[in-house]
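dude i think i finally got it to work??
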Amino acid sequence: RKEKGKSTTFDPKRPKKLLIFFAASSPKWQDEYIALIRNNFNTLTLSVDEKTVGETLKAKGGKEMKRAMPFVQSLKKRLHAGEKQEVVFERKLGFEEEAVLAQMVKGLKRTTGCQVIEVVKVEDEGDEGGKKGKVVAGDGEGESRGVLPPVAGSAVPGGPSFHFENV
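look at this
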């Protein structure tokens, strides 16, 4: 859908290409907050030391806090809901995401009408902030992708992101 004053380059009437982005590992910045919650989690009362966590987050300041707060809240919510702490803190998937997405390619081609579907494993470029990737399934398997669309950055383990474009 086109926003007010914005133009779109995607034409749904022309042949389509679907890019599915998935991440094999969680973003590095989340590790620090996993450790913070783990260190301040009381296994007997199933609660988190709110004061210590809050002070640490406030010390980080502005932009970092905006990104970290929703993540920390989601961790606390999962722990309070009774999810096992090993599952929450280790962040292991109960399935092989790459294999599942690869199996979906054929069915997605049929149902979406896309001519080209690529499953791309997203890799961090480190401090440069960019994302690169490698096609692991679908058309173009084995090829590297240098510059990925911004939506690729939102892919996390268990939560792929999708991008449609014209062929």
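The mean pLDDT is 78.
im so relieved honestly
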